[in-house]
User: Which sequence fits this backbone?
């Protein structure tokens, strides 16, 4: 199949012919009997891994098997925020590389992912918090990311409707990352899928992995709903289902499954042209291109595989929203939903080999793995192709837990619901 | 979700704090030979999809630690006991 390239000419031609001639964006093949690499999980990370395996390493005899449809997981449920404002050495270079890949993504995959560098603004409310943000901003700049400390008046110029004089949590300023922003989440899945498919990767939907065939400590293939598929290498990439799937290969992980809820209001005229986060509670918000305010807050905080949460967190998020942007109280919420998170024990991800030869693991993304989608695929593809961890992901190893080299941005310890 | 506290009756979720898996066992030994057992205890979890025994603290109620058996797929709570039972 030849890939249809998108251009102004193709848009005009198709518009003039009633949009009846667009072709399916990827094939729907039946699985072959075996592949060099089978990627389990067709979320953002599985698909970007397939793209970079094919494009950067020339490995194209690859299948991505997805339990449901492409985009049905968190890649289509998140609040679309991308940023590289981490503090710790194990994290910041990785997330900054992801940001750079976002900046070139649409040219790389010839697909409009609506990458919008509208900025990410973290407001602070006290001197102590300002100092902590200065430190974080300096760490970001040290690793080549952008960070600006804004005073109250500079924040006011960006978001005049914020409750600056809130009696309890007055807004004193903010840490701003201008290159951060939002990316159209499901377009990321579709764009990577299309690109991988055009390079020969088979994307097989409605095909859950149901078991692994392991002989003499080496993986030889995957049992699936569509029968056995042989594989020289198998790469797990199932985010919130990590423990469930890894358990089929006899592995126990430093991960708990939790739920994060998100909300969108009715559409309004342009109000918020950046991403804003509250500093005194957990609340973050951006405005979608359709006009709805998209926001969220904390995870519910108990183990769950149900993709829905409970009311206490809804109330907590609404309170955070009202404290930061009182005008939000005039809006009606259109929809809310939940997604299944792979909360790790230190709040940071894992991209590593497993004790089973040829079986690789990618997971532990917590509530922040969307921004990581390009770099995760980039580094995972490198590991699968070369057998060596990519330098940017070198800290994301299983053995960091036992050796005490955890990457705990929040300093919470081994308590997943607190990260 | 509501938890039926043995002392206080059915109460809303916001009265409770979650601790996590109630089945992990703290190793007896602090000897170097127990290192792997400690790593298991601190970091590794079964994280089942289905029935899960877990600890909740009734902080806005009677202050008991409860061992709750809950289905992580449906959120149905099938048993609530005092965590201190038989210990
Ligand atoms: C409400 C919400 C808001 C979020 N907001 C942000 C944000 O603003 N910024 C950010 O950076 N991150 C955010 N995240 C986190 C981010 O969405 C995830 O970390 C990331 O999407 C996980 O990687 P993924 O895209 O590969 O996961 P997924 O899209 O979940 O992919 C995993 C796939 O594996 C499949 N699978 C599971 N079991 C099997 C099996 N047995 N066989 C085959 N396939 C299987 C699933 O069906 C799924 O499609 C948010 C998450 C949620 C839930
Ligand atoms: Zn009680």
Assistant:
């Amino acid at each position: 199949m030849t890939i249809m390239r998108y251009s102004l000419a193709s848009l005009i031609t198709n518009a003039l012919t009633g949009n009846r001639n667009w072709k399916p964006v990827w094939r729907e093949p039946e699985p072959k009997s075996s592949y060099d690499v089978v990627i389990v999980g067709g979320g953002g990370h599985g698909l970007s891994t397939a793209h970079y395996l094919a494009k950067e390493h020339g490995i194209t005899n690859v299948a991505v098997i997805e339990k449901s449809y492409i985009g049905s997981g968190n890649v289509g449920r998140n609040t679309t925020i991308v940023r590289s404002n981490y503090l710790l050495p194990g994290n910041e270079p990785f997330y900054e590389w992801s940001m750079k890949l976002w900046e070139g993504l649409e040219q790389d995959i010839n697909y409009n992912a609506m990458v919008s560098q509208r900025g990410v603004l973290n407001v602070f409310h006290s001197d102590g918090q300002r100092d902590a943000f200065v430190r974080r901003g300096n760490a970001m700049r040290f690793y080549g990311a952008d960070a600006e400390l804004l005073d109250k008046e500079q924040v006011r110029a960006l978001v005049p409707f914020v409750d600056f004089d809130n009696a309890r949590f007055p807004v004193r300023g903010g840490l701003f990352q201008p290159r951060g922003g939002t990316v159209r989440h499901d377009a990321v899945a579709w764009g990577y899928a299309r690109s991988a498919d055009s390079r020969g990767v088979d994307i097989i939907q409605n095909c859950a992995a149901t078991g692994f065939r392991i002989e003499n400590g080496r993986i030889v293939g995957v049992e699936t709903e569509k029968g056995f598929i042989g594989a020289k290498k198998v790469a797990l990439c199932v985010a919130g289902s990590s423990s469930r799937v890894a358990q089929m290969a006899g592995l126990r992980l430093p991960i708990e499954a939790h739920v994060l809820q998100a909300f969108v209001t009715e559409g309004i005229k342009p109000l918020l042209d950046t991403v804003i986060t509250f500093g005194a509670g957990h609340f973050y918000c951006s405005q979608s291109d359709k006009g709805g305010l998209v926001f969220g807050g904390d995870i519910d905080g108990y183990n769950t595989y149900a993709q829905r949460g409970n009311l206490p967190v809804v109330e907590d998020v609404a309170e955070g929203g009202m404290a930061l942007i009182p005008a939000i109280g005039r809006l009606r919420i259109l929809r809310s939903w939940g997604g299944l998170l792979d909360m790790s024990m230190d709040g940071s991800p894992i991209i590593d080999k497993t004790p089973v030869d040829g079986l690789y693991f990618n997971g532990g993304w917590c509530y922040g793995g969307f921004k990581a989608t390009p770099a995760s695929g980039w580094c995972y593809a490198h590991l699968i192709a070369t057998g060596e961890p990519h330098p940017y992901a070198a800290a994301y190893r299983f053995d960091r837990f036992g050796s005490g080299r955890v990457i705990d941005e929040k300093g919470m310890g081994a308590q997943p619901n607190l990260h | 979700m509501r938890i039926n506290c043995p002392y206080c009756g059915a109460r809303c979720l916001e009265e409770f704090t979650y601790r996590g898996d109630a089945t992990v066992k703290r190793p007896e030994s602090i000897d170097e030979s127990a290192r792997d057992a400690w790593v298991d205890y601190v970091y590794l979890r079964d994280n089942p999809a289905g029935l899960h025994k877990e600890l909740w603290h009734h902080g806005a109620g009677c202050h008991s630690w409860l061992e709750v058996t809950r289905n992580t797929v449906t959120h149905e709570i099938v048993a609530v006991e005092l965590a201190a039972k038989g210990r």
User: Anything to note?
Assistant: The interface with chain B takes residues 243-244, 247, 252-257, 301-306, 310-312, 315, 345, 401-402, 414-417 of chain A (CB under 8 Å). The CA atoms of residues 291 and 392 of chain A lie 36 Å apart. Chain A has ten helices and 18 strands. The longest helix of chain A spans residues 92-109.
